[in-house]
Amino acid sequence: VQLVESGGGLVQPGGSLRLSCAASGFTLSYSAMSWARQAPGKGLEWVSGIYSDGSTSYADSMKGRFTISRDNAKNTVYLQMNSLKPEDTAVYYCAIGLPPPSRVAAPPGYWGQGTQVTVSS
């Protein structure tokens, strides 16, 4: 089981990014998946999740700005982030489960290595 995130980078406030999480070793469509983030000096924060039936859930501060989706053919889950703010700066992780197990207790591969998103002018 492996998750690999990509798509992070530097973006100006108000801009957009789309993060990808490519899964291998399991069939993503059968699993609930989550995105979480960790800002500098802060704890891990759950961002969004998608269930195996395609229904989605978001943290309140992300509603209307972030959209989670899934491409079963590519075994990939995405996070479209719009209207980005400096406070969205963080390392973004994808994980198996909704909610996912803690990073400390999770089985190997349940969390990706993360991708850095920096929102700054």
Number of helices: 0
Gyration radius over CA? 13 Å
**Parts with pLDDT < 50 across at least 5 consecutive residues:** none
Distance between the termini: 37 Å
Structural class: mainly beta
Task: State the helical fraction.
Answer: under 10%
Largest sheet: 6 strands, mixed
N to C succession of SSEs? EEEEEEEEEE
Which strand order does the major sheet show? 2-10-9-4-5-6
**Strand-residue fraction?**
over 45%
Overall residue-averaged pLDDT value: 96
- Silhouette: globular
- The total strand number stands at 10
Structural features, described:
With 121 residues, the chain is mainly β. 0% of the residues lie in helices and 46% in strands. It contains no helices and ten strands. The protein has strands at residues 2-6, 9-11, 17-24, 33-38, 44-50, 56-58, 66-71, 76-81, 90-96, 115-119. It starts with a strand and ends with a strand.
